[in-house]
Amino acid sequence: MEEWKKGFVPFELTESIWVVPPWCPTPEKVKKVILMEPGMAFGTGTHETTQIAAQLLSRALSDISQQKGEEKKGKCLLDVGTGTGILALLSRHLGVENVIATDIDLEAVRVAKENIELNKENHISVSNQPLDQMPDHSFDVVVANIIDGVLLLLQSDLKRLVKPGGKLIMSGIIQERWDYFEKHFDPSSFKFRTRLSKNEWHGVMWEAE
To answer: Does residue 5 belong to any structural domain of this protein?
Structure first.
C-alpha cells in the first residue's frame, strides 16, 4: 500500500473536479476537490470504468437539468457498489442534493464513510442496504460501476429504482463480454442514450420512460 501511494497523484476526473490524495498538496488554481483515501476499497478514479462512469454521470445530470429547466441537476442519486465513495462525492460536486451510496462489502462501506467525512459531506448516506428493500422509482439517477455479470444480476432492481425520465448508468462491461451483456440486458421501459468506451471497458446510459 505504501509503495502504491507513491504513484497516486492528483488528477482531474471530470469538469475541473480533481481527485487529490490527502498526503499530496492540492495543485494551485484547483477549486473543486475530492479528497480520496482509498484504503483497500475499489475506485480511486484512475480505472477506466470509474472514468467512464464519471463522464456518463456528468452527461446525465446535465441532461436532467436541461429537461427540467431547473438549477438543480437532480434531487436524489443512488450509487450502487460505491467502493471508496468517489462517484457519490462527484455527484455532490455536480449538483445532486441527496445521495445514497451502497455496497455489500463492509470494508468499502467503512472506507466510503471515512472519505465522506474527510470531504466534510453531510448529504451522502452510506449503507449496505439491499436494493430489493428500496421503494420503486426513488432516484433521479442510479449509477452502478460494477463488473458486467453483477450488473446483469441486479438489472431488475436497478431499473425499478429509477424515476420516469431518470437515468440509469452502468459501467464495468469488458469488451470480450459486451455481446453477452447486450444479449442479456432487458431494456424494457428504457431508452438507450449513449455508450462510452475506454480501452477495453464500456459503460452505457439509459433513460426510464
So the answer is: no
